[in-house]
Amino acid sequence: MAMSAPSSQPGEPPAAKPRVVLVALWGVSHFAPMVEVGKRLLALSGGHSLAVDVLVVPSPTGKWEAEIFERIRREEASGLDIRFHLLPAVEPPTDYMHIAGIEEFVSRYVQLYVPHLKAIVSGLACPVAAVVVDIFCTTLLDAPQELGVPAYVFLISSAAMAAVLLRSPSLDEEVPAELEFVELEGGVDVPGLPPVPASNLPSGLDNRKIMTYKWFLYNGRRYMETDGIIINTIAELEPSVLAAITEGRCTRGIPTPPVYTIGPVVAIAPPAEDKHECVRWLDSQPTASVLFLCFGGGGGYFSVAQVHGIAQGLERSGHRFLWVLRGQPEPGTKLPTDANLAELLPNGFVERTKDRGLVWPARAPQKDVLAHAAVGGFVTHCGWSSITESLWFGVPTLPWPHAAEQHFNAFMLVAEMGVAVGMKLDKERSNFVEAAELERAVKALMGDGEAARKVRKRAMEMKAACRKAVEEGGSSVVSLQRLHDALIQGAVEQRK
């Protein structure tokens, strides 16, 4: 899909409004929140004081998710002063197949776009209020810094993740080089958080011998060079860790850039006229009776052995369930396919559970399902977008993390936020969960015990807090206004 080049170029009359340049990555889970930030900034002033350009970094494979183009078309038709620019393809790092982690890959890959970003920003005739980059895209900060343009970083993840990144450089200096964090007694010290077990650190930060670990430190250091850190959270959800960040306890007393909590960044669309089959099935289920299992936008996929374990655990639990089960990716791809249930599920499972369960083999509308009154629990891979959606709808969770920062998010859900029931998994076996453990955890979450009552109560408190935060005068609206004012001030200072 060809997108237009920026319409304001040297020699044209300057635009009346300063522009905010958002640099979004190719994945929907990163692209959609970044766009939502731009829309909220525009909505805050009725579109009178700022305009937005979204620069989209293409996938290194050259393949695009159709949902991104659908979102672009929808936003362009909305009448908002927001323009999209698909950046040209570049050759990824020559050794990218051997890069240990996504953090290292993204950091090195987007660095190749510094010249493109400089050219676009310097080519805009109007003042550029700021450039906003994604969580692991701090190599792009070279462009706005060289041009004298304010720069911000946007974390689609939690304040706790921001604390870990900011803390990582000093933590690396404090722990002897010959030690791994897993060898530390009592866990890893991150101010504002309970001691973090090393096994729950974000992938890449738990192994000091790999290059990905160095890139964690690099990004953490570069956050301190920005004009602000924007976080997809609310002040009421993570008060202790936000205090630790802003007081400099994560950075050895050195003041951090201003922190803006503007979450939850959840785009809620009106209900579809034609209900999805999963939603229609939920209509016939009792209130808060269904356990929803879904592992990311693509639904996630498992080995046959793990699928059988999930089936056994659900069947033995006796609880109602809606299970989004996907098949293995096609060769050379990473996205799951529609599942062949006859090949994956144990013989007779569908028939035995047909009165209380539905196994859905394709993508499902996760937000619509979580919004349904019949859903009482959510088994999630712990991506932050899924977590914020569960908080928004007040659904307690059963964390089943797989990669990236998901184990860290799972720890936070249980130990710090109190909205989840923990579940044991074996990281050495691709995060395998035994059928008996899943059965126990499902009963603990969906039953009538003390643990279930506590997490339900806490989840409903967070639902109320999330909605209050985005109302007029709410914490996130106030923080967004502070960000808006800082952006305007940055543009004014460039005019001087």
From TrEMBL:
Family to which this protein belongs: Belongs to the UDP-glycosyltransferase family.
Q: Which keywords belong to this entry?
A: Transferase
Keyword Transferase annotated: yes
List the Pfam families.
UDPGT
* Name the UniProt record assigns to this protein: Glycosyltransferase
Keyword Transferase among record annotations: yes
Top-rank taxon: Eukaryota
